[in-house]
Amino acid sequence: MVTARSNQIVRIRPFAKSDVANFVAAARESAESVGKWLDWCHGDYSADEARIWIEACRQNSVVGISYEFAVVDPVTDEIFGGAGVNQINTAHNFANIGYWVRRSRCGRGIATAAVQLLIEFAFKDLELTRVELVVRPENLPSRRVAEKVGATLESAARNRIVSYGKPWDGLIYAIVPGD
């Protein structure tokens, strides 16, 4: 069972059906910032897209394919963004961690705090032995998050990320238990 986790800065919890309007607002607000890197995030992001995403998140966590979380204010429950453990490789016991923060909340340590909670979830709950954070080289905010959580830059991989229908190079940061 996937449960919420929190620290002083954020709480991560599974998405709920009641998050649709708040999620749409966060996505639309972030079209120019997050949308630069993630093609799902666009200015006309719809309630239907949010409902489909939230239901997919629920179904995927039930079968253990991925675990996506709303990153929220620990007091007001306002959605700050999203973060998840996905692309789980059961044969080699590792996964990817992805994250985004709405434009108006950037620069406050939210992504770093959320990723720290995800790392704890990945190692303790899922018993993974490695997590990767794969970012485009020019995505400096995501690179800073990877470095702040103690991930090691291991390699640059050509055509590692596909976004907007084309491949992009990616930097692979990794963290293992004990780092």
Which terms would index this structure?
29% helix, alpha+beta, 179 residues, globular, 4 helices, single chain, eight-stranded mixed β-sheet
Short note summarizing the structure:
The protein is an alpha+beta fold and 179 residues long. It is 29% helix and 33% strand. The longest helix is centred in the first third of the chain and has 17 residues, at 47-63.
Number of strands: 8
- Report how far the terminal alpha carbons are from each other: 26 Å
Poorly predicted ranges: none
Biggest pleated sheet? 8 strands, mixed
Percent strand equals: 25-35%
Mean pLDDT: 95
The side-by-side strand order for the widest beta sheet comes to 1-2-3-4-5-6-8-7
Helicity, as a percent range: 25-40%
Radius of gyration: 15 Å
Topology order in helix (H) and strand (E) letters: EEHHEEEHEHEE
The helix tally amounts to 4
What is the molecular shape? globular
Structural class: alpha+beta
Helix/strand layout:
Blueprint: E1 5-6, E2 11-14, H1 20-29, H2 47-63, E3 67-72, E4 79-89, E5 94-101, H3 110-125, E6 130-135, H4 140-148, E7 152-163, E8 166-175
Parallel strand pairs: 5-6
Antiparallel strand pairs: 1-2, 2-3, 3-4, 4-5, 6-8, 7-8
Describe this structure in words.
By secondary structure, the protein is an alpha+beta fold. 29% of the residues lie in helices and 33% in strands. It is built from four helices and eight strands; from the N terminus they run E-E-H-H-E-E-E-H-E-H-E-E. It has helices at residues 20-29, 47-63, 110-125, 140-148; strands spanning 5-6, 11-14, 67-72, 79-89, 94-101, 130-135, 152-163, 166-175. Strands 1-2-3-4-5-6-8-7 form an eight-stranded mixed sheet, sandwiched between helices. Strand 1 and strand 2 form a beta hairpin. Helix 1 packs across helix 2 (47-63). It is globular. The relative contact order is 0.15. The model has no long low-confidence stretch (mean pLDDT 95).
